[in-house]
Amino acid sequence: MSPITAREAVQQTADTFIAHRSEFEQLAERALIDLEQSDERSLKLPDRPFYDSAWVSESINSDGIDVQFVVEEFYFPLVYISTDNPQDVHDTCTNGGQAVKQLAPHWYICKRDWN
User: Fold this and answer.
1) What is the 3-state secondary structure (H, E, C) of the chain?
2) The pTM is what?
């Protein structure tokens, strides 16, 4: 089995977002509420068959909250950003990482910092 390329990972994540958009939106909305009501800084989201893992967390040095879904490749997560500003998700979308593609308002595929 050959490793997946960055282009393939981004495309598969985008396709999965399109196919399950309403479910992703509901999960992100619920995650924001759950985090706000907890005393935690991050929470794991329930498992679903269309992603490998997911969590919600407060962004460091910002008022943003991000929800990250690992769909195909850990280093190219689907990210919901409450502020719609990729600068608020350090090491995933900025400061070592980078926003690769915006899929919709608040929804990005980012390239996570490899370190």
Assistant:
1) CCCCCHHHHHHHHHHHHHHCHHHHHHHHHHHHHHHHHCCCCEEECCCCCCCCEEEEEECCCCCCEEEEEECCCCCCCEEEECCCCHHHCECCCEECEEEEEEEECCEEEEECCCC
2) 0.92
